[in-house]
């Protein structure tokens, strides 16, 4: 909500440097040369600088679903109620940010990361097109010996790296960027997942118990059918039963909504009950991620040991899973 008087000038300097054409790397190097530390006390990286400068919060804006939040009446960006840059006082504002972001999008188009007309996903959030985005956690330790534990998200491989395939990467701009290729990680963890499901969830009924409102709903449906039949045969007039039918309709609609909610809730809470391995092949990405979330609490990704090439064969012992309650069992030992 409020500016930090000591840190604010450094942020302004980074923004103005980028607006003047400075590179992310050059700005980070200058911050480090001057001895300015990050919020965690570490050194600045290109991504750390970019994450701050590209964030519209510094001028008062917000991004939701990949687009700026705009006022419906004015068509102008909605300005948040927190301390932010003032054009008259600081010499930078929305127009400065817009110019910087045009450069960012142009660079992304040049590299083939973004197609013309496609909204930039700079601040949209975690990608959901990869099975284990958000489940994987960074196991790199910083200079203070603290484990990062930031989420790893899936990234599309581009340019010369395409031959290696898509990859998971730590999303913390202050981390050195631990990562793993998607294909071997997914293959290994899906194997663990299916084995654990076979072991713990193969037994049990796959059908929900009867909903307690079933009898009442059936009775209301029969009553409505009888009243409508009476109107159709002339035994009752529409005027006499109109209010009754309206009340019956509202009650039936309410109970039917409760029934659907009950079935959907039960299905979500008992997604794994009566598990059969062939179900995995019929599931879409969303359902698979729901299964993963119910089995894995997280998976810690340890850094490759020093002296080991980044091109070395995939080492599954560097993935340390934590299981949800009810799926506990022996875990791989940490190397």
Brief characterization of the structure:
This protein is mostly helical. The chain is 42% helix and 9% strand.
Please describe the structure with a list of short key phrases separated by commas or semicolons.
single chain, 335 residues, mainly alpha, three-stranded mixed beta sheet, 42% helix, disordered C terminus
Q: Could you please describe the fold and organization of this structure?
A:
The chain is mainly alpha-helical and about 325 residues long. Helices cover about 40% and strands about 10% of the residues. The strands form three sheets. A three-stranded mixed sheet has the order 3-7-8. A three-stranded antiparallel sheet has the order 4-5-6. The radius of gyration is 28 Å and the shape is flat. The two termini are about 45 Å apart. The model is unreliable at about 110-130 and about 330-335 (pLDDT under 50).
